[in-house]
Amino acid sequence: MIRVKIKRDNGQIKSFQLKGHAESGPVGHDLVCAAVSGITFGAVNAVLELCNVPLEIDQAGSEGGFLKVTIEDMQPSPDLEKACLLFEGMLISLQTVEHDYSKHISIIDK
After folding, report:
1. Model pTM above 0.85
2. Which of 2, 43, 58, 77 lies at a 20 to 30 A Cα distance from 18?
3. With 70 as the cut, is the pLDDT of residue 29 above it?
4. What is the CATH T-level fold of the domain 2-109, as seen in this structure?
5. What is the largest CA-CA distance in the chain?
6. Is 47 in contact with 86 (CB distance < 8 Å)?
C-alpha cells in the first residue's frame, strides 16, 4: 500500500511524503503506482518550473517506494500561493485515486 502523509502550516501544504508500493498489478504494469507517480512528479515538476519556491526533495533508496517533498521557505508570496495551489490540485487527484483504489493507497492530511 502507498501511504501518503500531508503536513500543513497555516492551512497550506508544507510537505508531503509517499511511502510504500501499491502492488495493484505486476511491476511495470501497476496502474495505481503509475497514477500516483504521474500525479506527484507532475505537481513537483510544475512547482519547480512555474514557481520560485525552494523545495527539498528526498527520494531515499534506489528501489523506489519513497518520496518526500518539503517547501523550504513558507514566507508569503505569490509564488508560494501558486505552489500551494498546485500541491492542493495534486492532493485532489490523489484523493480521486484513493476513492477508487483504497486497498492500494491511503492518505493522511494533517
Report:
1. yes
2. 77
3. yes
4. Alpha-Beta Plaits (3.30.70)
5. 44
6. yes
Backbone angles phi, psi at 27, to 5 degrees: -55, 130
Instruction: Give the three cell numbers for residue 6.
Output: 500531508
Phi, psi of 52 (to 5 degrees): -90, 70
Confidence of residue 62 (pLDDT cuts 50, 70, 90): low
| Residues annotated as part of the active site | 21, 33
- Report the candidate in 3, 86, 109, 104 with the shortest Cα–Cα distance to residue 39: 86
Q: Are 107 and 2 a contacting pair, CB within 8 Å?
A: no
DSSP one-letter string for the chain: -EEEEEEEETTEEEEEEEES---SSSTT--HHHHHHHHHHHHHHHHHHHH----EEEE--SSS--EEEEEES-----HHHHHHHHHHHHHHHHHHHHHHH-TTTEEEEE-
> Are residues 110 and 16 in contact, defined by beta-carbon separation less than 8 angstroms?
no
Decide: 56 and 69 in contact? Cβ < 8 Å.
yes
